[in-house]
Each structure stands twice: as C-alpha cells, then as structure tokens.
Amino acid sequence: MASDSIHPSPVSYELRGKVLLVTIDNPPVNALGVDVRRGLAAAIEHADANDAVEAVLLVGAGRNFIAGADIREFGKPPQPPALPDVCNRIEACRKPVIAAIHGAALGGGLEVALGAHYRLAVAGAKLGLPEVQLGLLPGAGGTQRTPRLIGAEAALSLILSGRHASAQEALKLGLVDRVGASDDVLAEGLAYAQELLAAQAPARRTRDAQGLANREAAQAAIAAARADTAKKSRGLFSPMKIVDCVEAALNESFDDGLRFERKQFLECLDSPQRAGLVHAFFAEREVQKAPETKSATPRAINTIGVIGGGTMGAGIAVAALDAGLPVTMIERDDVSLARGRAHVEKVYDGLIAKGRMTADAKAQILARFSGSTSYDALAQTDLVIEAVFEEMGVKQAVFTELDRVCKPGAVLATNTSYLDIDAIAASVSRPQDVVGLHFFSPANIMKLLEVVVPKQVTADVVATAFELAKKLRKVPVRAGVCDGFIGNRLLAVYRAAADHVMEDGASPYQIDKAVRDFGFPMGPYQVIDLAGGDIGWASRKRRAATRDPNARYVQIADRLCERSWFGQKTGRGFYLYPEGARTGTPDPEVEAIIDAERERAGIKPRSFTDEEIIRRYMAAMINEGANVVHEKIALRPLDVDVTLLYGYGFPRYRGGPMKYADMVGLENVLADIREFAKEDPLFWRPSPLIVELVERGANFASLDQSA
Ligand code: 3HC
Ligand code: NAI
Asked: How would CATH label the architecture of 303-485?
C-alpha cells in the first residue's frame, strides 16, 4: 500500500496478483483535485516502472468513480499536473489500464476513463460530459477522444446536452466495453482485468480509435450540430466552442486537437458565464442546508392533503402523486371537486397524448388520488397544503377546520402568495405546526419551493418542509414572512421599475425584448399576458387603500384590465393574440393607451436604450434583493439568486441577480441607484446593505461565504 504518513494521498495502489489496483478516495465525490491528479500520475509511473505489474485497474471508493474536475479549484491559480497531462499519461501507460466505473463518471472523471484502455461499467453508473452546464467544455481530451471512440454525432449529443448515460446506454454507444453482471465494481473490474491479461490484450489507445473514419457522416453531424446550437443555445458561450472542438477532432491531428481544445477550455474558464453557472451549481446545493435541516429531525410524511383543486391545488396534487405519495383533495362542493379532479387528470391525459405515459400508468397513479368535500377525510393525513382563494378570511376558515380534524403533529401548510402567515398561524390552536409552502405555477413543473418560516413554527416542521421538497424534486429556499416573501417581493419592485420606464417612453415591446436579450425566456409584459392581467389587478385594488400616496403609480395596466384585456386567455393584453395564438403581436391600440396615460401624467416621453432599460430593471431587482437579505427574509444573497433562477426565469448563466451585481461591481449598481434617485428618490432608496458593503469594499459573495 503506497501512502505518505504526513499527507495520505487520496490515490492509493496495491498489487492484486498481476494487477495494480488504483483506488481514488477523495470524498465526497472523488473530484480530481491536485492531490488526486498527482496520485494518479504517480500510480501510472509506478505501474510502468514495476515489472510485477501487468495491468492497471482504476476504481473509485465510495459512491462514485470520479465526479469530474474539482469545481472549487476553478478561478484559482492552476497547480500541476494539469488534468489533460494526467489523461495522456494514463493513455501512454505501456500496460493495459482498465477503468471500472460505478456511480458518476462525469466530466474529467469520464475523461480519465477515456484515457484508460478499457472501460467497464456496472448498473447505476452515470457517464457524461456535463461541462456545458458549467459554461465549460470537456477540457481534458473529452472533445477529442469521445468522437474518435463513438463517432461525431453521438459525441456531440452527449457533450452538448451534458446528459448522463446509463451503463447500458454507454455500452450501446461504445463508450464502455462491457457492463458488469453484478454491481460489485471491484470484483467485476478484477475479473475483466484477468480476462484481458489472459487474452494478452494490448494497451489500446482511444486516440487511435476510428470513430471518425466516415468523414462525411462526421461532417454532416458537425454541420447539423452547428445549426442546432445557433438556434437553441442563444447567448451561451461554450456550446459553439464544443462544436469547433469536435470539428478539430475530425480535421486535426490528435495532439493539435488537444491543443485547440485546451485553448477553448481556458477561454470558457475565464468567461463570466462559467462564473455564473458554477455559482448556480453551488448555490442550489447550499439552499438545501437551512439551519433547521441540521438541528431537527423531519416528521414522517406518507400522506398528503390538498385543499382546493384550482390551478395550484391541482398542480401540487400532481407533484405529490408524481413523487409516489397518496393525495386527498378537499373542495367546497361536488362540482368544484369534479373540476379539481379533472385538472389533475388533464395533466396525465396530456402526457398520454404525447405518448409519454400509458393509460395504465395513469390509472395506477390516480389510484393514489382521492377527493372529498368533508375535512374529516384528512383525519390521518401527515401534511396538508392549503391552496384556496387568496383571502385571509377564507384561509382562516380552512385552518380552523384543519385544526379541528387533523391529527396531532400533522403539518399544516399554506400556499399563500402574499398573506401574513403569522396571522394564519395565530388563528389556530397549534401555530407551531403551521408553515408556508409557496409553490410556483405550474406546480408540478416549476422547481422552486419557497419554505416560508413563520414566528412560532418549530424547527422539525421546517425540516419536514425541506424533506418534502426533496421528495417532490423541488429546490427549496428558506424565506421569512413578509409581503411577497423573497420572489414576489422582488418581482413587485422590478416590475414597477419596468412600468416607470414604460410610462417614461419605452414601449412594452422594447422592454420585453431587452429583457429577453438579457437572457430571460420572456419579458415582464409577456409574463403578465401569460399569467392573466386580472390577478395583479385584483391585488392592486386590494392594496390601493394602503399604498403610499406619494409613491409613483403607473396606471397603464389598469386601463387594459378595465377593458377586460387580461392577456392570452382573452385574446389581448399588452399584446394581441389573434385566433388563440400563443405568441403575441404588438398592439397599436395599447400604444395609444400608453400615450394617453403619459399625457395624463404630464410626462414627455423620451427614448431609452436597451442597456439603460436593463440597468434600471436589474438595479431595482438587486436593491430589493439586498433589502430581503438585510431584513433576514432571505438567509444569504445566494438564496435570492436561487429564487430568481428557479422561479422567475433569471438566466442561469448569469448566476442570479446578486451574483450579477457582484460581477458588474456593487459600487456601479449603487451609483446607478443614486443616479436614478435624482428623478424618484422615494422609489430608488439604496438598500442599507449595499451601502454598507460598498463602504467596506465587500460584495454579496462575502456574505454567502460567511453565513
Ligand atoms: N467538484 C467539487 N465538488 C463537487 C463536485 C465537483 N466536481 N461535484 C460535487 N461536488 C460536491 C457538491 O458541491 C457537494 O458538496 P457539499 O456536500 O459541500 O454541498 C458534494 O460534492 C455532494 O454533491 P451532491 O450533493 O451533488 O451529491 P449527489 O450524490 O446528489 O450527486 C454528482 C453527485 C452526480 C456527482 C453531482 O454532484 C454532480 O453532478 N457533480 C458535478 C459533476 C460535474 O459537473 N462534473 C464536471 C466538472 S467540470 C470538469 O470535469 C472539467 C474537465 O473537463 C476538465
Ligand atoms: P384558483 O382560484 O384556481 O383555485 C382556488 C380553489 O380553491 C378553487 O377551486 C376553489 O373552489 C377552492 N376553494 C375556495 N374556497 C375553498 C374552501 N373553503 N374549501 C375548499 N376549497 C376551496 O386559485 P389558485 O390560482 O390555485 O390559487 C390558490 C392559492 O395559491 C392562492 O392563495 C394563491 O395566492 C396561491 N398561489 C397562486 C399561484 C398562481 O400562479 N396561480 C402561484 C403561487 C401561489
């Protein structure tokens, strides 16, 4: 056993007969940090230098082979040996090297395996090159070896999507040579090594593989990928470089191709998109670790109740059914219940129509679904989610019923968007069991789940909410009670900023386009048209009495709603939707209404560049994001980022609004806010947190790290 008593290497090796067994043991996922790279290179040196070694077997300890490069090293000074050199060194080994794969062989992990001469995978293995999801490309020979091994088309599909292939698929693609009969990766690997030795199998190098021999097929695949990438990867930096690298694999020597790949990889590594995507990767893992998940044990959740079968209730029911949980839905009367059930069925019927589900599978799922108009049906339910009308009186009446029927210890959750959950909790005899679970529409699709933590709730209820999120495959973000929690509170402010820009002279169409060009899938006015303008109108009317009379209030949306122009569902809103079209066209009548409103408000319209629109939109979003952190509604800036990424279409490659603020420089954002404040000091009040951070020369990331 080779080890160093002061710094035990994460890579150990020992002779098993004629086979040098090399084990990578670098918890949690065997990432290829500098010590692993050194250890691998040393193990291969040892194998070549030692006559007793006739073959080398690479295995990972723990749950994975190797999850890839160590993402935490990105952006830090490089330390030799570089991963491409390690892969080359493995490939150059004079004795056959076999990679035996279980769990993840991702990114650099798969590239190590491709440097080996033979590959075996066991069931449950996940093989892939997901670098594109981090704004990168496979930078240790992956773009050169993969197409040589499995052809350009399959390689491009794998690298451009970043998806994981199963052991069976990898076998079919030719990415591995065999799938182990058992899932004992060590036994399977050793047996395979013995077989190869018995057959005197040579050190077979992937660089010499002939997957690109059919040049025409490869050229066609590259051209198709180029056209597809231009269409689908709008705004992204690394995908086109991936296509270029695979083209280099076809046209250049292996070594020149590797050099080309390296250059492209380093450009990606330096790009702000890489920084944004890596931030998103870690942030979405960090949000799961709310303090209560460490301090308390979740309650058992085996049954779910949903009150209300409307848009949200039905979506939540589907999310729970999809997670394998039994669901009981409560509605006001039989007609509403039938409608609720129909909403649920419609989701599955849609899947059946698309050929993605069988009628049998639907029947099996619905066997776990029951409905009732009596709350007594919830007597034994573990967790109930209320999704009735957004009115305090209605919600409190529902909670009174829940208080009456639910067993002790049942978790009572509300899906309210804006209402005061402390007040809802205060209306029952067990406020310690009441929590907010704020889903997003459509609830069975959208990943975000705000876990809203009222004053009196106990830690184990919060931990239960996080556990439920895991079961439902949602990304939970912990939020405090306030008007709109994290997401909707920011939304209200950046939408207001957009409204100001619109009234001051930009058209909604220009604003939407600027926001789309920034990377959002839709602009704010398209979103209003999609969700229905009446929803916001109702809440504006509710708030009219409490609104600050000095605050600027743009009435344009009200003028459209007064005409019943609620968006897509009524055929017109900010846009026209002729004959049920889903993409709107600009409406000259809307522009006329906006003109009239400007005149009424005494505003002389001016023009805006797209850049200025975005500066205002982002400054408003960032400033309110800072406020929710300052008020401890969000635990850290990264919680705001994840909320916007998963619930509001913020472009992932920019990392979220707070990461974006750090990248453009917090002092620049503050300067913008102060400049805008000259026109409207009430709206543009710099968040105390931004002021403080700028004074200290610090940024939002420093708060993420210290939390
Ligand atoms: N580097 C550093 N840390 C990593 C890591 C990596 N490549 N992959 C995972 N981790 C960390 C996570 O941050 C997490 O840390 P935490 O416990 O402190 O939060 C821990 O490992 C466990 O990760 P998960 O919670 O994600 O564990 P799962 O079991 O759910 O998933 C996984 C395991 C499928 C391996 C998943 O972690 C994953 O997809 N990792 C990223 C894989 C990847 O993108 N690899 C490519 C890297 S880029 C590259 O290789 C460049 C090369 O081409 C040169
Ligand atoms: P909806 O109007 O589509 O559905 C509400 C349902 O509740 C109706 O089916 C109604 O019959 C039922 N209901 C009303 N009173 C009831 C009672 N006393 N007992 C049983 N059922 C009752 O409303 P939607 O959009 O589903 O919203 C529900 C809640 O979810 C609201 O609090 C809303 O703020 C919140 N929400 C809505 C989102 C959205 O995008 N629509 C997003 C996130 C939260």
From this structure: 3-Layer(aba) Sandwich (3.40)
Domain ranges of the chain: 11-269, 303-485, 488-706
CATH number of 488-706: 1.10.1040.50
C-alpha neighbours within 13 Å on the C-beta side of residue 478: 24
Count of all residues that appear for the chain in the document: 707
Residue 266's CB: how many other CB atoms inside 10 A?
Answer: 12
Pick from 597, 502, 522: which is nearest to 558 by CA?
597
If you average pLDDT over every residue of the chain, what do you get? 96
Tell me how far the alpha carbon of residue 68 lies from the centroid of ligand 1, in angstroms: 7
CB distance 69 to ligand 2 below 6 Å: no
pLDDT for position 580: 80
In this structure, are residues 154 and 134 in contact, taking their beta carbons and an 8 Å threshold?
A: no
* Ligand 1 atom with minimal separation from the 64 CA: 35
Q: Give the confidence band of 6 by pLDDT, cuts at 50, 70, 90.
A: low
Would the CB of 103 count as within 6 Å of ligand 1? no
Q: What is the CATH number of domain 11-269?
A: 3.90.226.10
588 vs 605: CA distance, rounded Å: 17
Active site residue 131: yes
Residue 115 CA: which ligand is closest?
A: 1
**pLDDT tens figures, 571-602:** 999 999 998 888 999 999 999 999 999 999 99
The gap from C-alpha 368 to its chain's centroid, in whole angstroms, comes to 29
Among all bound ligands, the one having the nearest atom to the CA of 335 is 2
pTM over 0.85: yes
| Distance of CA 125 from the midpoint of ligand 1 (Å) | 15
Q: Is 106 in the pocket of ligand 1 (CB under 6 A)?
A: yes
